[in-house]
């Protein structure tokens, strides 16, 4: 009998994901002394995943990195990959890394696992934000990588993120906070997706 | 210990028994339509009726004509709920009582009736997965609950995820006293526990063949004599007009033989599995700190062990074991394709921490002590590794 669909016999994820899952890089070792200059934590146990990033920063360049996660295999693998990519990278550049960049370096992730991989870059950004705050530059990188979601009112993904951080947990509350989707309404599917994603990150 | 292949997902499905497979292959040459009047057709029909007797015997049904062959558990369960739609849509008595821990095919069929305007109640369960009989009694009493008189009580015999077994005889007494029909999804109980439709007093009972080492794509609905059924599939006169479609000869024959063997082996099988389950449970408790065994300590399927490992995420545990050749399943949201963890574990009130980190080990005919020991040996370092990199301390989830 011949194998008609070879992929069914492979591991669930790509070989690169498998390697990063079984031998993740830069994982925080509870026994080591890692003096971080900045830390960021996002996610919550209710949604089933949580991520923590620790950074050593020298002259605005990431000198070293550690991370921890309560998460699935693709969360572990994508954060491991992310931690390798950002070593030696200026914090400004690291701040704009997107989950899709990491997913493609991993040789792709299944569609339904993409949301598991977004926590890594969010935790990284939270760590950089806290560092900027510490060095009196709070919010310095905000808006640089914002993507316009609602063209009618020029509302970006960052605005949606901020609204969720400020307590919006439903479409109505998001509209109240941002006025999104009150003109043509064409942005609603994408905006609802982002709302769902940010609630996942910041907790329900 | 060298790498092994250990299948511990028997509640998902079971391999086809060699003896059953051999009979099915033999039967492949019998091509005649079992509804045909000629001799070849009658021969084929003979085998179908033989299988009906074997399946009836497995559940203690005296009358084989109470067995309707279907394509499986989902179809049998949906047939019951479609029947309730017909019986209840223009009737006063139309309340449906089921539980929060049913298989999705019952949950969604019940939700559909709710969408159609039926009063539907999903009974909660206690921390060990059993329904509260006094709550059932209250819901069956129109004077003490809303929704009027009850048409159907549908409670699964044993749960697929945590293995908890319900007290069907007691549920039956309450349902009968209130004049309601009783359905039970016995897909997981079949072959593992003795089933007696007379003692249980059920009106409908659902069976699936591929959970008892028979082929997939075949199942049955037991209907007490005199109960009504509305066909999901209309057509010919097969199965008393309740389930049209040409007989699946090989599937039915395989089902019959698998049922006969399951009945023959049940007692010894149950005892052997219970011992293996205890070995696995005790081994995990000894090798891994901070774990919680889910489900009922005694009213539980002999083969099902559901354990939560706080601090480690279920999908990551599953895939760590997969790399060691061990096949299990998890209640984690990350494995379900949704953001919600196991509805069963959440209904028992364990909370998302324990639900996301849960693993179901389900043992079966092929399981051995060596398999169990191998799983314990591989599990301990996998959990340790994931907990070391976790943001959630394993102790944070101690009850």
What's a quick, concise take on this entry?
The complex is a heterodimer of chains A (204) and B (399). In chain A, 41% of the residues lie in helices and 16% in strands.
Written account of the structure:
The complex is a heterodimer of chains A (204) and B (399). Chain A has 204 residues and is α+β, with helices and mostly antiparallel strands. In chain A, the strands form two sheets. In chain A, strands 1-2-3 form a three-stranded antiparallel β-sheet. A two-stranded antiparallel sheet of chain A has the order 4-5. The N terminus of chain A is likely disordered. Chain B folds into two domains: 137 residues, Alpha-Beta Complex (Aspartate Aminotransferase, domain 1); 245 residues, Type I PLP-dependent aspartate aminotransferase-like (Major domain) (Aspartate Aminotransferase, domain 2, 3-Layer(aba) Sandwich). Helices cover 40% and strands 13% of the residues of chain B. In chain B, the strands form three sheets. A seven-stranded mixed β-sheet of chain B has the order 2-8-7-6-5-3-4, sandwiched between helices. Chain B has a four-stranded antiparallel β-sheet with strand order 9-10-13-12. The two termini of chain B are 35 Å apart. Chains A and B meet through helix 1, strand 2, strand 3 and helix 2 of A and helix 9 and helix 11 of B.
Which keywords apply here?
heterodimer, A: 204 residues, alpha+beta, Sufe protein. Chain: A, Arc Repressor Mutant, subunit A, 2 domains, three-stranded antiparallel β-sheet, two-stranded antiparallel ribbon, 5 strands, globular, disordered N terminus, B: 399 residues, alpha/beta, Aspartate Aminotransferase, domain 1, Aspartate Aminotransferase, domain 2, seven-stranded mixed β-sheet, four-stranded antiparallel β-sheet, 13 strands
């Amino acid at each position: 009998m011949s194998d008609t669909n070879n992929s069914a016999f492979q591991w669930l994820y790509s070989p690169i994901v498998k390697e990063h899952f079984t031998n993740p890089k830069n994982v925080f070792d509870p026994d080591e002394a890692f003096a971080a200059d900045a830390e960021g934590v996002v996610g919550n146990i209710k949604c089933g995943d949580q991520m923590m990033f620790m950074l050593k920063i020298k002259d605005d360049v990431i000198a070293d990195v550690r991370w921890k996660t309560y998460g699935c295999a693709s969360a572990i693998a994508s954060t491991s990959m992310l931690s390798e990519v950002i070593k030696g990278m200026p914090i400004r550049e690291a701040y704009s890394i997107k989950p899709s960049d990491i997913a493609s370096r991993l040789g792709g992730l299944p569609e339904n696992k993409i949301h598991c991989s977004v926590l890594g870059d969010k935790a990284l950004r939270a760590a950089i934000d806290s560092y900027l705050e510490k060095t009196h530059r709070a919010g310095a990188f905000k808006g640089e990588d914002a993507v316009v979601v609602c063209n009618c009112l020029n509302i970006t993904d960052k605005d949606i993120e901020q609204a969720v951080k400020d307590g919006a947990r439903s479409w109505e509350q998001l509209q109240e906070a941002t006025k999104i989707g009150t003109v043509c309404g064409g942005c609603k599917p994408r905006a609802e997706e982002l709302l769902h994603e940010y609630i996942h990150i910041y907790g329900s | 210990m060298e790498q092994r292949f250990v299948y511990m997902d028997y509640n998902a499905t079971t391999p086809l028994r060699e003896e059953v497979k051999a009979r099915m292959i033999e039967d492949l040459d019998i091509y005649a339509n079992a509804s045909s009047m000629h001799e070849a057709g009658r021969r084929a029909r003979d085998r179908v009726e033989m299988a009906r007797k074997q399946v009836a015997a497995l559940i203690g049904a005296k009358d084989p004509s109470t067995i309707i062959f279907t394509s499986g558990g989902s179809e049998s369960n949906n047939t019951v709920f479609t029947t309730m739609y017909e019986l209840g849509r223009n009737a006063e008595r139309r309340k449906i009582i089921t539980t929060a821990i049913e298989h999705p095919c019952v949950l969604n069929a019940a939700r559909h009736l709710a969408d159609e305007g039926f009063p539907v109640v999903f009974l909660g369960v206690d921390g060990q997965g059993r329904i509260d009989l006094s709550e059932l009694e209250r819901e069956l009493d129109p004077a003490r609950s809303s929704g009027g008189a009850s048409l159907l009580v549908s409670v699964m015999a044993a749960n697929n995820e945590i293995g908890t077994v319900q007290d069907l005889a007691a549920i039956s007494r309450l349902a009968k006293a209130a004049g309601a029909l009783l359905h039970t999804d016995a897909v997981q109980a079949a072959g593992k526990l003795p089933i007696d439709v007379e003692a249980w007093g059920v009106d409908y009972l659902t069976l699936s063949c591929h959970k008892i080492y028979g082929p997939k794509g075949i199942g049955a609905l037991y209907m007490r004599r005199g109960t009504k059924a509305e066909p999901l599939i209309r057509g010919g006169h097969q199965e008393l007009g309740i389930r049209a479609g040409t007989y699946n000869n090989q599937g039915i024959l395989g089902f019959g033989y698998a049922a006969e063997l399951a009945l023959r082996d049940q007692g010894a099988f149950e005892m052997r599995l219970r011992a293996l389950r205890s070995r696995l449970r005790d081994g995990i408790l000894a090798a891994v700190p901070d774990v919680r065994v889910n489900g009922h300590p005694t009213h539980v399927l002999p083969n099902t062990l559901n354990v939560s490992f706080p601090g480690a995420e279920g999908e990551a545990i599953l895939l760590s074991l997969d790399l060691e050749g061990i096949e299990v399943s998890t209640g984690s949201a990350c494995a379900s394709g949704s953001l919600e963890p196991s509805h069963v574990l959440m209904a028992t009130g364990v909370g998302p921490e324990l639900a996301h980190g849960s693993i179901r080990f389900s043992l079966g005919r092929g399981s051995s002590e060596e398999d169990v020991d191998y799983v314990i040996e591989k599990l301990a370092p996998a959990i340790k590794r994931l907990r070391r990199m976790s943001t959630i301390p394993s102790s944070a989830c101690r009850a």
